[in-house]
Structures are given as C-alpha cells and as structure tokens.
Amino acid sequence: RVHGERMGERAARDMLDMADDAATNHPVLQQYDAWGKRVDVIYTAKGWRMLHDLSAEEGVVASAYERKFAEYSRLYWATKNFLFQPSSGLYGCPLAMTDGAARVVELSGDNWMIENVLPRLLSRDPSKFWTSGQWMTERAGGSDVSGATETIAKPVETGACQGWATHRLYGVKWFSSATDCDMSLALAREIIDDQPAKKLTLFFVKLRNDDKSLNNIEILRLKNKLGTKQLPTAELRLNGALARKVSTSGNGVKHIVRMVNITRIWNSISAISGIRRILAISRDYSARRIAFSKPVSQHPLHIDLLSRLEVQFRGGLQLIFEICHLLGRSECDISSEEEELRLRLLIPVSKLFTGRKAINCVTEGIESIGGQGFVEDTGIPEILRDTHVLPIWEGTTNILSLDVLRAIYHSNKKSLDAVCSYYSEKVGRAARQFPELLPFASNIREGLSQLETHFNQFITEPDLQESQAQRFSFCIAGCVIAALFIDQAVESKCAPADMATLRKWMFSELLFVSASSQSKNLPWTYDVKTQYQDSVLIVGKIEKTSDSYRPFGPSFRSML
Rounded to the nearest 5°, which phi and psi values hold at 57? Predict the structure, then answer.
C-alpha cells in the first residue's frame, strides 16, 4: 500500500511535469557536428531523462522480477504500472521493451547475458539502469517478420571484439522505438554456407561502444508520427553492428515472442490506465462545469455516458489483472498446463480488446469535456493522439485476431477449450452459490458454447474463419470479462454496485459470435428505469479533485 501511495503521489505531481517537458521538447537528431563528422546524437528533453531515473528508483521493471510477493508479484507490478503509465509521458514504451528483454534474458540460459545484462535491466540505480529496444520491423513489412526480415548476421572475425559478440549485423530496421536505449534485441538471418538462413535468429545488440560511439549503427532519421512525439523513433542502418546470438539458430521468433507477450501486456495496461485518466478528467470537469443551471455531473445523460465508460474500464481492468495473475504463476513456475493455455490465448485477446476500447473511450471522454477537450493548452488532445498507437504497436487488431486463431490451432484447440471450460465452470459454481446470478451465468455459458461451435463449424473453411476472426476475438473478451464480473459479484456477496456493473456489461458489451443470436432476448429484464439506476450506482458521487494537486495540462515545467 505504501508503495502504491508513493507512486500515486508522484503520478499526480512531479511525473506530470517531467511528462509535460518531454511532450513540449521533442527529440532532435544531430547527424553531423560542425566539422562534418557523422555523430548521430539524439537530444531528448530533461523531463524524459528524469523519467528514466524515476523508473529505476521506483522499480517499475524490477518489481516484477524481485518477486517479493511470489505468484502475486505481477499483480503488484501491474498496480504500479497502472499508476505510472498515464503520467509517464510515453516512457512506458522503453520500459515495456526493457521488461520483455529481461524476460528473454532470464530464460536464455546464456550465463554471460544473465550476469552482465540482466542486472542492468533490473537495476534500481539510475546510473546503472539500462533500457532496451526491440528491432523487428523492416522496410518489407512489420508483422510478417519471418517473411520480411532482410537483416543478415555474419560470424564475427576472430579477435575482432572483446569476446561478448558472436556476429555482425547488416541491414535496415524501419522502426526503432526508444532509440536512446542502451541495448536492443534484433531478429536477423544467419549466414550459413554463404546463404541467409530461411528462419530467423535473435541477437543482443549494444547501441554504443565503451567510448560512447555508436556500434557501427547509423541513425537515418527520426519518424514524424501522429502521436507519441516524446518518443525518439528512428530508422537505423546496421553496418556490421557487433551482436551476440541469444537464441539457437532459426528459433528467433520463438524467443522474441516472450518479449512480445510482455510488451502486449504493457500495451493493455497503458490502454486501461489511459481510459481511467480521461474518466478522471471528465468527472472532475463535470463537477466544476455549470450548464443549464446545474453542474454537468448532475445531468442524467452525462451520468449514463460516464457509466458506460466506467464499465468498459472495469472490464478491461478485470481482464488485464486476470492475465497478470496467470503471468505471475507462470514466471514462478507453478502454473498448470491449463493456465499456460489460457495465458497464451488471453494475451492477444486483451491487447486487441483494450487497444480498440481505449480509442473509443478516450474519444467519448474528450467529447464529454466539450470544446476545452479540443484545445492544446489543456494537454488533453495529446492523450487522444498517443492513444492511437495502442491498436497498432505490437500487432494491429487484425494481426492479433489472426494470432488468436494461431494460438488455438497450434494447441490443437486446447487453448480455446481451456478458456471456455474454465470460465463456464466458474460461472456455474457462482450461480449455485448465489441463485440471483443464474440468468447471467446461463447467458455467459451460452456465449462460451457458441465460441467452440463457431470454431468447429468453420475449421474446414479457413477463409470464412479468418473473415470472422476479429468478432470471434472480441466475443472471447466479452465472455471472459462477464465471467470475471460474476466472480467479483461473488466476492462482494452480490453488492448492488457490482450487480449493476454486471447487468450493464451483459446488456451492452456481451457479444455472441453468431450474429443471429445477437437478439437481446436475455433471460432477464432490464428496463430503462433499472438501467438509469445502475448508471447512478456505477458512477457514484462525483466530486472535484483536491486543489492541492497541480492541475492537469502544461505547467511549463515549474518543478524542473
């Protein structure tokens, strides 16, 4: 609790100033010095660099690996991350890759990496703390790394390095996020018998040499993006960059998936915490803004809007915490096969669901603020711009939907069976314990059953199955979240607010994969009066934020 309060205080105070400085002073690339020498130096804002130090001191990455809370360590980490990300000025991006890299190194079996790299990635000392990049995307494509990667890896010449490097990398990496990082993991094709290998291998690359010069790397340009402008994203040319082989030959994709799973979870937390931030701003503004003779917060239509956003936020939060608990058990080597299967399937489901919901919720949240939400001086438009990266980074919604199908096929359908049977049994037990939950449990079990029926129905028609992959994935999310809301209702002994959340989710968000079943013929009634009463319960009392905190928006870095 003390650590959470500390992070919450910093997120509401000095972190906002650091993030504002980073958002105001974007990265600048200097390619040549005054004498024409190629230097390729990226200058970042002081606030951005301070966020690096704060991240180390607060253990934003390290807390997951110190495992002070055993299988619940990832839940503890997720709580800190949830508080950290909306105030971090996008510094969560390099930290996500750092966390993913730490997991890859931890499982690599490479003693040199474990002894020399892992302590840096997990350090709480800002002077020793390393951040990592992730180099996969190339000119020929992003998500299709197996087919699009052109970077090659040649064995290093004998005596050409100090012993840690095994190869030199040659190629162009089209998207290098957080290019001010200290290291990166990169995919490349080994040269074997003078030919590039068909399968990819994973390599560790240090960006700079001990003398601070770049490791045979050229920074071609910084990307001019829609949002995330605080983040130095670049195109790189590798001209024989010294690298160390991390995976066995041809197993690079299998190893980097470990990193991608972690970064997708970070992406989901960023999405959900972003929804929470815009909700907090909207609630506070509605308590202050007078319209038609009373505060906006007292208008029933505004209450209904806030309740819908609140329910979507709670649903995403339930899903990501479920995943973090599964991840914590996996990282402590105590998870069952069934839990590993659920984790594999729910990670892409969570990422695609939360990324899409974040854009919808942030857009509606800004609309609820009115014209001020469109004014740059408030700092609010920046939230919307940055949110738009969430359904793109680490896989678009379509790519993640295909990954959901891939997870099911690669497990011989065991992952889908694990999800459907586990949550079906969970809601069944809940209904036996609390009979008032029976109609909801019946609806959820019907949805889960339809998921399996739909998959089996189109298993011989891959084109039709792929065309429905996105809806199918969202239906998985809807059913699982509904089951988690029932679990919450059991914990609270069917408290009114939890029942209201469950009813509103079931009515507005629970989809059936078969469109013909989307009839709203629910085995329970939900009249307009009950809907409004639920909205009031969900939103609760709206009060102004304490004036002791700095207001949201640019502060002109008064504390730097």
Answer: -60, -40
- Tokens 């999800």 correspond to what residue? 419
The tokens describing 194, both together, are 């003078």
CA distance 265 to 320: 7
What are the residues facing 307 on neighbouring strands? none
Number of other residues whose CB lies within 10 A of the CB of residue 332: 15
Cα–Cα distances in Å, from 52 out to 12, 18, 411? 17, 10, 39
Residue at token pair 């951040």? 131
What are φ and ψ of residue 41, in 5° steps? -110, 130
Give CA torsion, residues 82, 120, 214, 216, to 10 deg. -100
What 3-state DSSP class applies to 20? Answer: helix
Q: Which of 22, 25, 3 is nearest to 84 (CA)?
A: 3
Nearest to 31 by CA among 42, 20, 17: 42
**162-171 pLDDT, tens per residue?**
689 999 999 9
Q: Where are the beta strands (DSSP E) in 279-425?
A: 290-291, 294-295
Q: What is the 8-class DSSP label of residue 553?
A: S
Nearest to 475 by CA among 532, 404, 542, 536: 404
Q: Encode pLDDT of 173-186 as tens digits.
A: 998 988 999 999 99
What is the value of pTM for the model shown? 0.94
- 87 vs 227, 313, 403, CA distance in Å? 15, 18, 31
Q: Which two tokens stand for residue 440?
A: 């909801």
Q: Which of 46, 15, 16, 14 is nearest to 552 (CA)?
A: 16
